[in-house]
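Long-time lurker. I teach an intro course on protein structure, and each term I like to show students one example going from raw sequence to a predicted 3D structure in token notation. This year I'd like something fresh instead of my usual example. Would anyone be willing to generate the tokens for the chain below so I can use it in lecture? Attribution to the forum is fine with me.
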Amino acid sequence: MKKVFLDSEVILDFLTMRQPFAADAMKIIQFGYSGHIKIITSSLSISNIYYVVSRIQNSKNALSKVKELLNIIEVLSVHQSTIESAAYSDFKDFEDAVQNFTAKESGIRNLITRNVKDFAASNLYIQTPTEFIKELRI
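-- Reply from a regular --
Happy to contribute to a lecture. Here you go:
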């Protein structure tokens, strides 16, 4: 089964139905739910997702959505080695570096994000949700 790391904004697109991105995010989540792919994210993403959803909606809804995610998405821990790799990397954005090295240290080669340019320093296979969906269907 193909393992893919989802950046937090893709998950937020799904949870908050952000347009015009929600449809692609929903397709990826459905691929994971149906067992066609294994969706993975970091504990940092889960914290960020909870925070953003609680600000848009409320903390009760945010916690409920996090619990739903746990049925579909595997959550990886962020370790000191991950933070060290991110801190000493060539990434311009620290959070993106943490996401990248969380995936890399876990052996995940595919990272899906809407911000491909922010992962220019990555040696992972970086795709937008649209690119990933097109490739998966081939």
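Some talking points for your students: The helical segments are 8-16, 22-33, 43-56, 59-69, 80-87, 94-105, 129-137. Strands lie at 2-6, 37-42, 73-76, 110-112, 125-127.
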